[in-house]
Amino acid sequence: MARIQLDNQLRDPLQRVIHTGVAYTIEPPETIQPNSLVFWQADDTGTVTYGVAPEGENVSVGTGQTSQPRKQLTLEWRFSETGQPSYLTRDVDQDFKVAIEERIDGATFTVTNRHARRIPVRPRSPARRATTAIGIAAFLLLLTTVTVLAFGPHLSFGPPRTTRGEATATFTATPSPTITPTPTPIPTGKVIRRAVATGTMINGGETGNSQISCQPGEQMLGGGYYINNDEGANYQLTANYPSVQDSSGQPVWTVIVENQSLGFGSVTPPSVFVFANATCLQSSTNTSVGETLATSQDIAVDTSQVGEADAICPAGGVVTGGGYVLTGAPADPTVSPIMQSSAPGQGKWVASVYNPPPPPPPGMPRAATRMAPSSGAELTITSYALCATQHLNAPEPALSSVYNLTAYDSSTSSKGVGGGDLQCPAALPLVTGGGYAFTSLVGGFGASFFEDEPLDLSEVQADHWRTQGTNYTTSSQSVTMYIVCAALV
Q1: Is 296 exposed, middle or buried (0-12, 13-18, 19+ CB in 10 A)?
Q2: Range of the structural domain that residue 82 is part of
Q3: Cα–Cα 20 to 30 A to 252, which of 20, 121, 152, 285?
Q4: 133 touches 140 (CB < 8 A)
Q5: What is the H or E stretch that residue 151 is in?
Q6: Each residue of 395-412: b (16+ CB within 10 Å) or e?
Q7: pTM above 0.90, yes or no
Q8: Averaged in consecutive runs of 10 residues, what is the pLDDT profile of the chain (489 residues)?
C-alpha cells in the first residue's frame, strides 16, 4: 500500500477529472483547495488526472466524457511484482511544475506555477523621449541661472581664494549625539505536538479516557485524538475537549470513548485504543498569547433534531482550538448520536450533534449491537474553545478543504472511508487546531471520525492537520475539514 499526497501550491483549486485503478483504501479527493495538502491510499497501480478550470467555468468530475479543463496534469503510481511502488507524471501542462518527493510510506507530488507573473515595462515613444530631453536641458539651464544669481560674478570652481588683507574663518560643527532606540523584540516561537506514548485500551462494555498536558512553560492552543480500532469494536466518542487544569496549573486535553461492543457467551468483545494529543506553543521570547477557555451552555437535543453549541471567545480574542462533550444518550438504546461538526467558527468553536430516531425496519445493514444507555434518555452537547487574547494573529475564517467519505457497500459489508491533510502557509506557520463539518445532515447508521489531530511530519513542530473517518450510510458523505493557522505578533 502507498500513501500518496498532493500539495497544491497553485492559486486555484484542482478538480479531479478522471482516475483509474480499483484498489483504493482512500480514493483521490475530488477537489483540492489552494495551499492544501491532501492524500489517498492505493493498493495497486493507478492514475489520477487533475485540472484547473478556466475562469468562470466549472470542471466536470467523472469519466472524462464531459467538458474538460484547459490545464491538466496526470499523476501515476506503479507497483512492481515485488510490491515496490514507483511514481511519475505525464501530460503536465506547460504552466505547471510538479516535483516528486518519495517517502518510506509513499510519495508527495507538489504542484506549483512554472512561470511567475510579471508586469512588463511600457516602452516610451520617440515623442516622449524628445520631450524628456528638452525637459532635462531646461532644468540644467535654470539651475545654472540660479547658481550665478546666488554667488555673483566671482563664481569659481576650485579651492577658495583669499584677497590680500582679508581673513578666512573656519567653523567646526559639533555633531549631535546619536540616539539608538531600543528595538522591540519580535515574538518568535513554534507549536510542538504533545502526544501520549501509549494509548489507553478500552475493553468492550467499558468507558475510558486518554489525557495529555503541555510541558511547563508551554501554552496549550488545541488538541485532538486518534482511535485505533483494528479489532472492529463499536464505539462512541463522547468527549474531545480541553478540560480543567491539572495540579501544575496546565489545562488537560481529554478524550473519552465508550466501547459499546458486547460479548456473546465465551466470545470476548473487541477493544479500542485511544491516543490524545495537544498543540503546545513554545515561545523563545516568552510571549504570552493570553489563552483563555470559553464554554457554551449545555444544549439539550430532542429526538430527530440537531443541536448546536457555540463556545464564544471574549471580545478581541481568536479561537485556536476546541472540542465538545456529549452527556446522556438517545432515547432508543440501539442508536448512537452522530456528530455533525466540531470546527472553528468566527471567534468561536462550533459543535453540533444529531439525535437519531429509532432504527429502520429489519433487513437494513447494522454496524453492531449497541449497549443500553447508562443513564437517562436526554442527549446534551457542550462546546469548549481555547482563545488567544493577545500577540497572536489567526485570520478567520480558518483554512478549509473538502473530501468525501465513500459509501457503505452492503454487498460486502464494507464501511466507507476517507480523509485529508491540510498545511498552513509560510506566513502563518503555527498549527494550533483543526476540525471537521459534514456539508449536509448525516443520519441513518451514521459516520464518524477516528482521527482528528495535528501531525509533525517534519519532526520539528506541528505542521499539518489530519482528519479520517468511516461511513456506514449507503451514500457518500462530503466533509469540510479545517485547520487554524497563526503567527505571533
Answers
A1: buried
A2: 2-113
A3: 285
A4: no
A5: helix 126-151
A6: eeebbbbbbbbbbbeeee
A7: no
A8: 86 88 77 83 88 60 49 90 87 89 85 62 42 46 41 39 41 54 70 93 95 93 96 93 78 95 84 96 91 95 94 96 92 83 97 86 45 53 97 94 93 91 94 96 88 88 94 94 96
